[in-house]
Amino acid sequence: xxxxxxxxxxxxxxxxxxxxxxxxxxxxxxxxxxxxxxxxxxxxxxxxxxxxxxxxxxxxxxxxxxxxxxxxxxxxxxxxxxxxxxxxxxxxxxxxxxxxxxxxxxxxxxxxxxxxxxxxxxxxxxxxxxxxxxxxxxxxxxxxxxxxxxxxxxxxxxxxxxxxxxxxxxxxxxxxxxxxxxxxxxxxxxxxxxxxxxxxxxxxxxxxxxxxxxxxxxxxxxxxxxxxxxxxxxxxxxxxxxxxxxxxxxxxxxxxxxxxxxxxxxxxxxxxxxxxxxxxxxxxxxxxxxxxxxxxxxxxxxxxxxxxxxxxxxxxxxxxxxxxxxxxxxxxxxxxxxxxxxxxxxxxxxxxxxxxxxxxxxxxxxxxxxxxxxxxxxxxxxxxxxxxxxxxxxxxxxxxxxxxxxxxxxxxxxxxxxxxxxxxxxxxxxxxxxxxxxxxxxxxxxxxxxxxxxxxxxxxxxxxxxxxxxxxxxxxxxxxxxxxxxxxxxxxxxxxxxxxxxxxxxxxxxxxxxxxxxxxxxxxxxxxxxxxxxxxxxxxxxxxxxxxxxxxxxxxxxxxxxxxxxxxxxxxxxxxxxxxxxxxxxxxxxxxxxxxxxxxxxxxxxxxxxxxxxxxxxxxxxxxxxxxxxxxxxxxxxxxxxxxxxxxxxxxxxxxxxxxxxxxxxxxxxxxxxxxxxxxxx
Length: 682
Prior knowledge:
- The protein is an alpha+beta fold.
- It contains 20 helices and 13 strands.
- The chain has a domain at 73-105 and 600-682.
- It has a 6-stranded mixed sheet, covered by helices on one side. The protein has a 3-stranded mixed sheet with strand order 3-4-5.
- GO terms for molecular function: 5'-3' RNA exonuclease activity; RNA binding.
- Belongs to the 5'-3' exonuclease family. XRN2/RAT1 subfamily.
């Protein structure tokens, strides 16, 4: 069996996360474009060279990642191409004729990885499920491993692309390697400037979840200390909850939870102490035990103030070291020093071609920067040490080292900005709790106690939602966390009395509804229907406030700009539907297809052992929806449960012996089709 799943409409809880990413991306792109144009003007004014205009005009249009969203023409075309690929492989490749293929496109609601996990979970519920089946999942989503661990007694291997950080990229101005746009001086050689990196082969990581489970069980080392029988499965579920608490795509993370600070290790230690002391678990049968979660968070909150103060001390030390690096840079490369030592007075500057910009040398020579790393690690450097460092550095190629230290200086400055730009809330001071709620939420000090409880209860409800989402599927399509910021661990009291029930009758957004909810107006014209696009730009639009051209961002104590919070409004679902109801009738036929929900499709070749039975059932029932228990038996080992039917209105279903038309002109049509396709759900 091969199951291919595209991302469909996500639950409402993730919508603001998607919206934030796209708004920040557009904001950064606009600012970066202005920066590039300014730097280009400066380079030309200083006599530098840039790539020829005719080369720039010949460049292919950059790929816009916003098109990878349900409801766009791109996703519709991608779905058609994948359907063609399945028909092509099953008709022309013998190996594919012995398997069954299930395909879920972007018009079926749900995130791709959750579609597959829910399919496996449904098969596990069958009494005669074959426990020897081994599932192999491939995907790039970070939570795929966590999702796999939620399936008990299931053999799963995860395949992921190996992550390789800091891969060299060409400068976006001169197309050369070894620097970024900030330090670009234009083309430094008359040779061909569009040199390419050697192709890097993709490597894959295989994760055996059975082995991972065993490692996690052993890592706790608690069994022998307990006075009761230890339940490994419940511990694993508790561990998953702790990972969710530290970070997820649905809630802003707690200010005291930073994964690079080994917070998971700290939380596990608190968990172990509580298990030994109180004999409890945090979860049960895929549901959070809020009483025990409250106890756990209360114990964690005792560490919260210490975490904030330790973090501040570490940041201060880093800033001192970074300032030291800047001081060394300034002393070595002062203008007065270089104008006499490097070039005779009045002489023109010689052409400079750094080693890392030469042909066949696209990357830095890291060996020459070791002294800088040493200086960065040093806590207390006296003047003699600094002088010694300067002598060592100036013995190297001065221009080359200047460039490298310039890059270091720029990185240093960015880190300092990241660490100090959010000083409005000083979490290391005694009134940190009051500061946070008055400045982040705008709450009157006298209302903080009541308001913080409200925020914590919404957050706890979010933790409940996420945990159920991972273990049981979507608990509610319309729930979401309504704040930009998280509470503190110390705010989680009385959450055990939560009585909020999720709306099980809620429905997902349709593809175009989600698209207009998350895409900024600056890049929506290409993807939205014309009349819908006008709602994002016209001043008299009833939802124009959802599409701010300028908005504030907040690092909120984080280190990197990618972690910023975009302070943009949340989308009111009822208000959006009220406005859009007058625009549905204006959709073209093609837009209506992009906006409708679809089911998965199941494919089977005429040579497959089950084909004749399937054909007979459809002939008998005239294509009506038919329920099969233990629907298939693939190679007598893999059983599939679900519902199949033939939809006569589905134009993607091609009858036997008919021709499958290619979606792209460069591909050929598939004649005499031998693959039957039916609608499928479970």
